[in-house]
Amino acid sequence: MGSDEIASNDSKNLPMSTRVEENPPNSTTSLLSSSIKYPKPSTSSSVLFSLILTTCVALFAAIAFALLFYSSSKKPMSNLIQENAMLLKKLKHPVVIIISSDGFRFGYQFKTSTPNIDRLIVNGTEAEHGLIPVFPTLTFPNHYSIVTGLYPAYHGIINNYFTDFDTGEKFNMGSHEPKWWLGEPLWETVVNHGLKASTYFWPGSEVHKGDWTCPKFYCQQYNESVPFEERVDTVLSYFDLESDDDIPSFMTLYFEDPDHQGHQVGPDDPQITEAVANIDGLMGRLIDGLEKRGIFDDVNIIMLGDHGMVGTCDKKLIFLDDLAPWIEVPKDWIQSYSPLLAIRPTSNHSPKEVVAKMNEALSSGKVKNGEYLKVYLKEELPSRLHYSDSDRISPIIGLIGEGFKVEQKKSTNQECGGAHGYDNAYFSMRTIFIAHGPQITRGKKIPSFENVQIYNLVTSILGISGAPNNGSMSFADNIVLHRH
Ligand SMILES: [Zn+2]
């Protein structure tokens, strides 16, 4: 999943050719939230009408009393679930499907015709200039921030691989022991409320947490060889379950593309355009399947990515061995090189001194590309990165310039391809965010935001209370419709 180390021989780092003429058409007033139709009461008989009215008032009072009664307990049918269910035609409860297209850099949607994605944008809410990933802009940290609302320092997945220095144990993308995965992911929150959740791949989804035990029927074990179409069809098949209670309230769906191609050829290559068209086709398959079941307008779809992609190439390299006249930075100090440089010096070296010496070297003008790397004690990183408050994070972190790579020493490897993991302030690291559905404001553009907001967005749509997290409670108010 999101192998971040792939390099290829191709050099294709042309400027991004965004085709503005393919911007989705402007939404009109008919797409606004006011287009929801409410049934009008019959006027044929005033007696009948008042009878119905009385019944409604009585029913409403009964429901209100019931809600009051249950509101403090952990019950699936909370106040908001019932309110939100009133927006639905066929389904009995709100459903959110969250779809991740790995490495879908913001702007890829303009590379080719994407009629299905455009349809979601025009009738839904879109982050107009993309979704901001968390730092480091890597696959595992970001996917887990999306489902927990926590920055990596707090959810524990601080890199795709790392070592716990208290125990010496190593985490990698196949580690499913609960101890690594902190926080409360959405599938756990959902099942803790007595609702069903399903995962068709997502980092962390196979980990047992709370009432979530990754049940076979609802939780697929990661296998990248499963065709994308099969993944979509399985998600659709959950809507065919006989009992409404068995239809998951929350579902995930994951595609490895276009990250896979992006690493090999960089963000600007016909292979990316082709992968984007394919992802759009899969969204079409999902929409068609929902329409055939008469529930497209009943299902909330959130389409997003985990991070962007930037071209990397031969000349954009920084070699740690070039710092030797100032300080030796040996290989066994390095927890990860690129695009997140993480250094843990042995205990006889003061991290503060190492940082000072390294920065002296890098700013001397004598280290090739030295100006594109700056190292920090993790506590002194810009606070906007939220990347210090965890023992798992190495004491020294290097911020590498966009598209540059750090290596130990010169090699004969060809180094052209694509990468991500850099500072999340780089526009190239942004990805997409589109939400569409009965509880989503139609035809709305919102400013870019960090993906830690998505946890609260989903719990708000589902009408359940969530775990504490780094998102803001008011964020969902911009997007989610509730019928009061
Ligand atoms: Zn990724």
From TrEMBL:
<dbReference type="Pfam" id="PF01663">
    <property type="entry name" value="Phosphodiest"/>
</dbReference>
<dbReference type="GO" id="GO:0016787">
    <property type="term" value="F:hydrolase activity"/>
</dbReference>
<feature type="compositionally biased region" description="Polar residues">
    <location>
        <begin position="1"/>
        <end position="16"/>
    </location>
</feature>
<keyword id="KW-1133">Transmembrane helix</keyword>
<keyword id="KW-0812">Transmembrane</keyword>
<dbReference type="GO" id="GO:0005773">
    <property type="term" value="C:vacuole"/>
</dbReference>
<feature type="transmembrane region" description="Helical">
    <location>
        <begin position="47"/>
        <end position="70"/>
    </location>
</feature>
<dbReference type="InterPro" id="IPR017850">
    <property type="entry name" value="Alkaline_phosphatase_core_sf"/>
</dbReference>
<protein>
    <submittedName>
        <fullName>Hydrolase</fullName>
    </submittedName>
</protein>
<keyword id="KW-0472">Membrane</keyword>
<feature type="compositionally biased region" description="Low complexity">
    <location>
        <begin position="23"/>
        <end position="34"/>
    </location>
</feature>
<dbReference type="InterPro" id="IPR002591">
    <property type="entry name" value="Phosphodiest/P_Trfase"/>
</dbReference>
<feature type="region of interest" description="Disordered">
    <location>
        <begin position="1"/>
        <end position="34"/>
    </location>
</feature>
<keyword id="KW-0378">Hydrolase</keyword>
